[in-house]
Amino acid sequence: MGYDDLVRLVEAKFTTEKEIPEFRPGDVIRVHERIREGSRERTVVFEGVVLKRAGSGARSTVTVRKIAAGIGVERTFYLYSPSVQKIEVVKRSQKVRQARPFYLRRYTNIHHIK
Amino acid sequence: MLALIGRKVGMTQWFDEEGRAVPATVIHVEPSVVVQVRRPEVEGYAAIQLGHEAVPERKITKPLLGHFKRAGVEPRRHLYEVRVDDPGQFEVGQEIKVDIFAPGDVVDVTGTSKGRGFQGTIKRWDFSYRPKSHGHKWIKRPGTSGPMGLNKVMKGKKMPGHMGADRITVKRLMVLHVDPENNIMVVKGSVPGHKKGLLLIRKSHAQSETVSVG
Predict the structure, then answer these.
(1) Tens digit of each residue's pLDDT (9 = 90 or more) over A62-94
(2) Nearest to A6 among B9, B21, B177 (CB)
């Protein structure tokens, strides 16, 4: 077994216990994130369009953009972080073909993206 | 205090309970076998001699082969010695595995840093660059090697030369994960040397409370 496989084996602790739905850049997704404030816990939902996916194995990330109160907000999540509880796919894109569709930043309403 | 030899596998990241990502190094620690027990009555001190990684007989010298034959263990590529308090609890042929470490333990990791070849003073000793413009001619030269009138160069003067490939110890790394089935352990942070580089992992004298996972 190669040494890269050993890294994957260790990462399996995080990558096998969670199921990530299939989605790609341009899709609209909803990320449920668990936030701990002192002893209290609550779930925050971040809904937006996927600008990029990066990394592999336990280090995979997704960058999501949304318009909050008129201001564009981009957040990068670790897909396999325990604080990311669930990811829902809201809409699959028909038009976006790029792996890094940064031109989507020009849209003022993510729901206008086809 | 027990120690083991392993090989660096590579780096990844780990998530703590808060969901924060923590840098982590994966180390492959094959079981070491006890080749000899050194007792105070015989050798004058208490230690165990350990062998790491099986090796074909033809690859080791005959005197060493005799040493392994007498112990009745397969030849090993690396031999090393670890001081122990009570040599009575070890016997020749016994295997020592990663499970001597547990998550939450604090370890010191020793290895050989990556060789960098012949390097100038800027990379090797963090000297400053000089301005690239405004009439400057020498940008990466070390400047003077001592005061006027001294007529010699002080010993230990930082100069260009060979950098890296040194024995480096990184202290107080927290053990994040131990997998005795696959002979793997994960420590927080980075570890000297290249992938597949040999590492000596020792339990640290530091208490685990002084190191945080975050």
Answers:
(1) 999 998 888 889 999 999 988 888 999 998 988
(2) B9
